[in-house]
TrEMBL record:
The keyword Signal applies. Keywords: Signal. GO terms for cellular component: cytoskeleton. It holds the Pfam family Aldolase_II. Residues 1-19 form the signal peptide. This is Class II aldolase/adducin N-terminal domain-containing protein. It comes from Exidia glandulosa HHB12029. The keyword Signal applies. Residues 30-239 form the Class II aldolase/adducin N-terminal domain. GO terms for molecular function: actin filament binding. InterPro entries: Aldolase-II_Adducin_sf, Aldolase_II/adducin_N, Aldolase_II/adducin_N_sf.
């Protein structure tokens, strides 16, 4: 019996939609694996640290590699996790990162509206350049935007998550549960308030973690990588400035208005950096032949 044209169209349409979904997932996983390697090459992560992304077609899941050094992540190492409890979708999945709750709780807390738009990717790292700002008082070492490439950090000092103040003096410092992850996520404010009161509105896409490192969110994998790299660069710039000036008390930081304008400009520039870093990683930058 011949199938009706309507049935054939229905099947073909479903097949095309399925292929589109599959392609989107595959490209997101490929980008995530590349992003992981870029972060390692840029010195944001070493043997530790990780980047995740929201699942592109399933709102209850996110993507994160198995427990592996970031420089070694391939698309085959990327697993699907449930946002609800950071459990792997595949019960037979290889071991995951202890701190996957950082990611799950951020995707959970910012799961709709502008929050969801701004939290499409999460990076957690232990960069030694950033660490000093997590163990000194804010008034001594404020961590805020000082150059336009770090403008996303904003004009207010980054919050500092002190695990001891919430969970006592004897933790291993790791975000190893949904409760600790939710506590960390509560310090983020990745979007401008709906009812803005003016240019002084605060955006907090980055949070320091006392004696541990930091976590940054972004509206795309490319921007999360960009922000991670320039969080580290900002730390280096601030440290050098402090060394020259004998502290950060008199530093001319960026204003809230400058931060907002520069962040908007840079949103369209992150792909250029991502493509460059990816090409460098692949050894695809041709040598310049002297003439
Ligand atoms: Zn960590």
């Amino acid at each position: 019996m011949l199938a009706s044209p309507f049935f054939v169209a229905l099947v073909l349409g479903a097949a095309a939609a399925w292929a589109q979904t599959t392609d989107l997932l595959a490209s997101t996983i490929a980008d995530l694996a590349l992003a992981s390697r870029i972060l390692a090459q840029q010195g944001v992560v070493d043997a530790f640290g990780h980047i995740s992304a929201r699942h592109p077609t399933n709102s209850s899941r996110f993507l994160l590699s198995r427990n592996l050094a970031p420089a070694q992540v391939t698309p085959a190492d990327v697993l699907e996790y449930n946002i609800a409890d950071a459990s792997p979708v595949d019960p037979n999945a290889p071991n995951g990162f202890i701190e996957r709750f950082i990611h799950s709780e951020l995707y959970k807390k910012f799961g709709s509206g502008d929050g969801e738009t701004q939290v499409q990717s999460v990076v957690h790292f232990h960069a030694k350049e950033v660490l000093p700002f997590s163990v000194l008082p804010e008034r001594t070492m404020p961590f805020r935007a000082v150059n336009h490439l770090g403008s996303f950090l904003g004009a207010s000092p980054a919050p500092n998550f002190d695990i001891a103040s919430h969970f006592g003096p004897s933790t291993d410092m790791l975000v190893r549960s949904t409760t600790i992850g939710a506590s960390l996520a509560s310090l983020f404010k990745p979007t401008l308030p709906t009812a803005r009161t003016g240019i002084n509105s605060t955006v907090l896409p980055f949070v320091l973690m006392r004696g541990h490192g930091g976590t940054v969110v972004g509206p795309s994998i490319e921007l999360a990588v960009f922000r991670s790299v320039y969080t580290k660069v900002t730390a280096e710039v601030l440290a050098q400035t402090a060394a020259v000036a004998g502290g950060l008390q008199a530093v001319d930081f960026m204003s809230a208005g400058e931060c907002e304008a520069a962040t908007a400009t840079l949103a369209a520039q992150a792909t250029r950096a991502f493509n460059l870093w990816g090409a460098e990683l692949a050894g695809m930058i041709p040598d310049i032949v002297p003439t």
